[in-house]
Amino acid sequence: MIPPPTTSTSVSIVDLPVGAARSADGRTWIVSPTRRTGPRQNRRPAISAAYAPPMGAPPTTGPTRPDHDRDRPEQGRDGWDLRRWRYFVVLADELHFTRAAARLRIAQPALSQQIRALERQLGVTLLHRDSHGCALTGVGAQVAGEARRLLAEVDAATARIRDLVGGRDGRLRLAYTRSARGGRVDALVARFRAAHPEVEVVPETGWTAPNVTGLLTGRLDVAFVRPPLPEAGLTCHTVDREELLLAVPVGHPLAAGRARVRRAEVVGLPAVMWPRENGPGMFDRTIAQVWPDGGFHLVRQEPDDEQLLRAVAGGDVVAAVPAGRARALKVAGVRLRRFAAPVPTVDVALAWRTGTTDPAVRRLVALLATC
């Protein structure tokens, strides 16, 4: 005989026989009948909300889970074993233990044991069994519907998580650099979008310096920049390299002729440039290649390449500009000339935080190998 618990809170459930019934993990539910208020068929037992330990076990201060429960596959909330729900759904479809067991690729006795364990855990009869097969009880049919919906949600959530971990879902916060669009940069992003259409690419455009700040603060995932970058903690991979051209007014002496411009011809010429703080690495690299022996005479600053070329068109200054951007803008009144060897160049690179585990970033980086 099982002694009654010292304290318990009773909640009614249906179809549980009066007495003690063990749960699937070996613990014992304390069951007591409700007060008799009507005919025998209307009496319903009540089940204690508190667990009692198995008979002979030492007392505990509250509900515990055996160590082996922690390793049980597909455990749902409150100890529900999702595997049993899957077995029950297949059995509800087949209504035949042998066929259901074959479909599940398990032994028929094992299936029967799992279904009975589920019934004990629920405290209801889910199936009517006979020699010809089985049939769902009324509550069994309702439980089967709920189980199908539950498993569909679990499977959908699992697929979403796998996609997220695999970089096939989520967002990629990406920044372009103002001086480099088109060419391999746009081609790389287009390939990523085509390969991973479910990833939301959130683009913006900025100078290299704010793009680097966005990476370091975590506001951006990846950014196109103009190297070199002095900041630690970032990894860069060159995506493209382009030639620097000399932009001169159409009436300037250097605008005539087909010969390439020598470095000595630009020494001391009034020049226009964008602010160095926009991209210190590119600024310094440009000056070092175009005016290697000095003679850079900065007389004006403009915020971007378009305004820089418009300043050149005014007839007062010259500028060194990336070929792609200069040719794309096609500002009237400007002649673009090539430099003599060694040809000055600037790079555009993709940068990201070193050691990132973001799946979308890693998949974009993987595409760099084929650029």
From TrEMBL:
<dbReference type="InterPro" id="IPR036390">
    <property type="entry name" value="WH_DNA-bd_sf"/>
</dbReference>
<feature type="domain" description="HTH lysR-type">
    <location>
        <begin position="80"/>
        <end position="137"/>
    </location>
</feature>
<keyword id="KW-0238">DNA-binding</keyword>
<dbReference type="Pfam" id="PF00126">
    <property type="entry name" value="HTH_1"/>
</dbReference>
<keyword id="KW-0804">Transcription</keyword>
<keyword id="KW-0805">Transcription regulation</keyword>
<feature type="region of interest" description="Disordered">
    <location>
        <begin position="25"/>
        <end position="77"/>
    </location>
</feature>
<dbReference type="InterPro" id="IPR005119">
    <property type="entry name" value="LysR_subst-bd"/>
</dbReference>
<protein>
    <submittedName>
        <fullName>LysR family transcriptional regulator</fullName>
    </submittedName>
</protein>
<dbReference type="Pfam" id="PF03466">
    <property type="entry name" value="LysR_substrate"/>
</dbReference>
<comment type="similarity">
    <text>Belongs to the LysR transcriptional regulatory family.</text>
</comment>
<dbReference type="InterPro" id="IPR036388">
    <property type="entry name" value="WH-like_DNA-bd_sf"/>
</dbReference>
<dbReference type="InterPro" id="IPR000847">
    <property type="entry name" value="LysR_HTH_N"/>
</dbReference>
<feature type="compositionally biased region" description="Basic and acidic residues">
    <location>
        <begin position="65"/>
        <end position="77"/>
    </location>
</feature>
